[in-house]
Amino acid sequence: MYVLIAGGGKVGANLTRSLLRGNNEVTVIEQRPYRFEKLEAEFEHQVIRGDATELFVLERAGIKRPPDLLVAATGDDEDNIVICQLAREKYGLSNVIARINDPRNQLYFDLLGISPTVSATGAIMGLIEHEVPEHGLIHLLELRKENLEIVEVTVDKSANCQGKRVRALKLPEGARLISIVRDGKAEIPDDETLLVAGDQVLAILEPGKEDELRRILLHD
Amino acid sequence: MIGCGRVGSAVALQLQGSGWDVTVMDENEDALGRLGEHWTGGFLVGHGMDIKLLRDAGIEEADAVVVTTDGDNTNLVIAQVAQKQFDVPTVIVRVLDPARAQFYAARGLRIVCPTSSAIETLVGAVRQAEEASV
User: Fold this and answer.
1) How far is A78 from chain B (nearest CA, A)?
2) Which of the two ends of chain B, N or C, has the fewest CB atoms closer than 10 A to its terminal CB?
3) % of residues, chain A, pLDDT over 70
4) Which of B51, B73, B103 lies closest to A90 in CB terms?
5) Which of A47-61, A122-136, B29-43, B46-60 has the lowest mean pLDDT?
């Protein structure tokens, strides 16, 4: 695979290292002289010096070949947005991945249709939520392109679904239970499955159905 | 007005002078100084990517947004947000790099590229001098 990486900081440099180890072809673009020199010492001709939001720099790095994948991994969210827009719309790349530095900018990436995105803060928040669920609904996985997400809930004694069969829950369109873990054993529920306190339930749903699902499974 | 440097502040003052109700945003509080002692329009300190600040500045009711911060990419993103998220009828954005200016102009943004204008003017001036000397 040929991968173009914009930004050779910690993220970009380590991506380059890992991808090269996996026998991929990589070009990394770095603007700052000090970083560039360090990268060049390690990766030699696979580093290009310049501003990855400049068309001639992208072209020198081989964006016209085109790469199988571009990763916009700079420390600046506006730069990452522009790099992805140029890659997709000017050079016709279909696979771009963008790093989000400030999670508040997620909405701009979404607004401009840039996905998938990766945010360290978002990932850590996901892990924290998994440890300390705020509203009982733990986000496990977001499938942005498919417009679906997988969540986990733990049924407690006062939960609305406790003691009910799946059929009786009347789950909304766009939401399904996919598994129930009870005493360490997972099973795929059907209409007749009875939910009891202690069950860990995985559900798949369309974003926006969380509140409804939370009401049905947990509390009003 | 997002960005209150030399260009942004001058545009703000001229528009206000011709009767527009102008609010200016800049990251740097000192930029207010560029608007003079008698500035009566709005002035908010903060980043143009801050969606709450954009709302506080009244972007939802704005007839026009002019984006002139010192970063091309920041300007391009803010302009697209103004257009797509807030449906501002007129969005004008300054982009210094002619290549990016051309690409985004083709995608429907109203771009002003001072670099291209400077190049045209300079080349024109040299050609005029050439003609005069012939």
Assistant:
1) 5
2) C
3) 97
4) B103
5) A122-136
Amino acid at A3: V
Q: Which two tokens stand for residue B29?
A: 């509080």
| Set of chain B residues whose Cβ sits within 8 Å of the Cβ of A90 | 103
> Residue A207: its pLDDT value, please?
84
Mutate to test the interface with B, among A56, A84, A85 (most CBs of B within 10 A): A85
> Taking Cα atoms as reference points, which of B37, B29, B30 lies closest to residue B13?
B37
**Residue of B77, B80, B99 lying closest to A55 (CB–CB):** B99
pTM of this structure: 0.79
Which residues on A lie below 8 Å from B49 (Cβ)? 77-78, 104-105, 108
pLDDT of the residue at A136? 78
Å between A56 CA and nearest CA of chain B:
9
Superfamily of domain B6-133: NAD(P)-binding Rossmann-like Domain (3.40.50.720)
| Domains and their CATH numbers in chain A | 2-121 (3.40.50.720), 129-217 (3.30.70.1450)
Q: Where are the domains of chain B?
A: 6-133
Task: Kindly determine whether residue B73 and residue A76, on different chains, have CB atoms separated by under 8 Å.
Answer: yes
What pLDDT digit, counting tens, does each position of B105-126 carry? 998 899 999 999 999 999 999 9
Q: Is the ipTM of this complex over 0.95?
A: no
Please give, rounded to a whole number of angstroms, the shortest distance from the CA of A138 to a CA of chain B. Answer: 27
Average of per-residue pLDDT across A113-134: 81
Which distant-in-sequence residues (6+ apart) come within 8 Å of A96 by Cβ? A69, A70, A71, A72, A84, A87, A88, A114
Q: How many CB pairs under 8 A join A and B?
A: 49
Distances (CA, A) of A46 to A24, A25, A61, A62: 12, 9, 9, 11
> Could you report the per-residue pLDDT of A53-75, keeping only the tens digit for each?
999 999 999 999 999 999 999 99
